[in-house]
Amino acid sequence: MIIRWIERDWFACRQHRIAARKGKRMLKSICPIFPSRDFDTTAGFYENLGFQEVSRYEAEGYLILVRAAVEVHFFRCPGHNPASSDHGAFVRVDDATALSKRFEPKNLPGMGIPRFEKAEDKPWGICELAIIDPDGNLLRMGHIMEA
């Protein structure tokens, strides 16, 4: 079952790249929209991971952070409870292990909220790491392992 999913996923990604080269790409990207209790805290946390703040709309309660081609959006939610957060996104990366090694010196905790879980090979064929931000939002980052 897992192998079939990976094969389908790889095929879909390959088909998407082919369509993009032919100028047939209609969908460009997806950006998660996470809750944030405090934009300054959120921006500081993600800036430590290499993201840059590109837009902040105080009146509308909206924040946008970017690292390379990855955009993460946030809406102001002062009453959000990080311990019960169910918000998350998966980010495909070229090498989760190398990225994990870059995040290790940031000295993020290994337990609690926020936290960083080092990259490891998962039984479903993905090498992935996990970052939980101060609001309990989950970012998994990974790549498909070679067979």
Q: Give the ordered list of helices and strands.
A: HEHEEEEHEEE
The total domain count is 2
Could you describe the largest sheet, including whether it forms a barrel?
4 strands, mixed
Proportion in β-strands: 25-35%
**Radius of gyration, rounded?**
17 Å
Give the structure's gist in a few sentences.
This protein has 147 residues and is α/β, with parallel strands linked by helices. 26% of the residues lie in helices and 33% in strands. It contains 3 helices and 8 strands.
Structure overview:
With 147 residues, the protein is α/β, with parallel strands linked by helices. The protein folds into two domains: 1-28; 31-144, 2,3-Dihydroxybiphenyl 1,2-Dioxygenase, domain 1, CATH 3.10.180.10. It has helices at 2-21, 39-48, 96-103; strands at 33-36, 52-57, 62-67, 70-76, 88-92, 115-121, 126-132, 138-144. The strands form two sheets. It has a four-stranded mixed beta sheet, covered by helices on one side. A hairpin with a 2-residue loop joins β3 and β4 (70-76). It is globular. 17% of the residues are buried. Residues 1-8 have low confidence and may be disordered.
